[in-house]
Amino acid sequence: MKISANITNTHEDLERYSDETDLRNLCLKHRLDGFELLPVEGNTLGIIPSDLVGGVHLSYYSCWVDYWNRNTEAVLSEFGTIEEAEMVFGGRQAIIDRYRAQLDFAESINAEYVVFHVSDVSIEESVTYKLRHSDEEVVDAALELISEILDGKDYSFWFLAENLWWPGLTMTRPEITRRLLDGIQYQKKGIMLDIGHLMHTNTSLRTQEDGVEYIHSVLDAHGGLCGYIKGVHLHQSLSGAYVGELMQNPPKLEGTY
User: Fold this and answer.
1) 182-237: per-residue pLDDT in tens?
2) Burial class of 99 by CB neighbour count within 10 A (0 to 12, 13 to 18, 19+)
3) Which of 118, 105, 116, 117 is nearest to 53 (CA)?
4) Quick one: which of 71, 133, 166, 238 has the fewest CB in 10 Å?
5) Taking the model in full, what pTM does it have?
6) Cα–Cα distance between 66 and 84 in angstroms, integer?
7) What are phi and psi of 132, to 5 degrees?
């Protein structure tokens, strides 16, 4: 087992460390094997030593399925104008090219795995919890995108799908987990289980003990599919009471995207 911390290549994140030696000492102090890197400002490492990057967390879009599926009405509902959406995405091919470049970058630094979000949620949905898409719709769109970015590639790293609490891979429905895994045509495929994200899916949780029991119940329901779990994002989240209040009094959204 390897233990790592998340890090980005942003100036704000890296300015806390003086140089490569500082980062190595950080790992020694906290008994870390290295980092999971989220490259935000291009595919660069900055002062991060490549041998300390065990995994690369691919970039992600919170609300992308309608744009991918060319649902103009829904895109306008979220972004206001097509021009605004294009500023975010740049086109379907741009999305594909961005992911391919990150995968090539991960391979170039010998990352052991990459992490890919399988999720979709608009700003309005995130405060009202009135969801537009089913898990099936998001998974099927993700499989199209994954097929495009992995087509013809033979990378050495594991391709791990991460669960969230919005439509897509939530780990609350084993049949959806199976649908996703069966659809990924890549040998080294698996799951990055985020236990905090999983706890978000149950708004009745009030204690960490409740959370542990719930996580175990979800894993029990997945049975043999648990063999696909190759990594775990560790954090806890007891957001149920807050979400209940939010759903009863959702904020009024104003302005544009």
Assistant:
1) 999 999 999 999 999 999 999 999 999 999 999 999 999 999 999 999 999 998 88
2) buried
3) 105
4) 71
5) 0.96
6) 14
7) -90, -30
